[in-house]
Amino acid sequence: MGLIGISPLISPDLLVTLARMGHGDSICFADANFPSENLTSPGKPGPITVRADGHEVAPLLRAVSKLFPLDTYTEFPVQMMAAVPGDELDASIEERFSTAVEAEQPGMFKVERVERFAFYERARSCYAVVSTGETAKYGNIILVKGVLGVSDESAGSGPAIFTL
What are the backbone dihedrals phi and psi of residue 19, each rounded to the nearest 5 degrees, phi first? Predict the structure, then answer.
């Protein structure tokens, strides 16, 4: 059963994960080739896995960006994996991700490119890794959660903001 104002791309597990994250927590959206299960195996310290099989990252970013403020207290609230030396990076991936985020949070797609193994370490320190069906090479991205301000809508007669 869906919810009003929540994209059907946001699964119940992803919605709970986003709500439980605090300021400064990170979430990784990983492509289909990313070693998500290796980083998030039960019994190992590290992030939880949220499955989003069959979904591309850009539509998920658009849906999440409506619910999840990016951190304004860090220089780069967005991190993406850099191409391995000798490999080519498809610029359209960053463009798709940027378009998705900027549609909901203009001016907030401030990206840092991170070396492959350093990116894995950052993903290991995330609150969660969302394992997607993204097939684009280097289609991985980390978002840092910011502070949720009290909007006019939540302070007045509009919908209340709840956390789990």
Answer: -70, -35
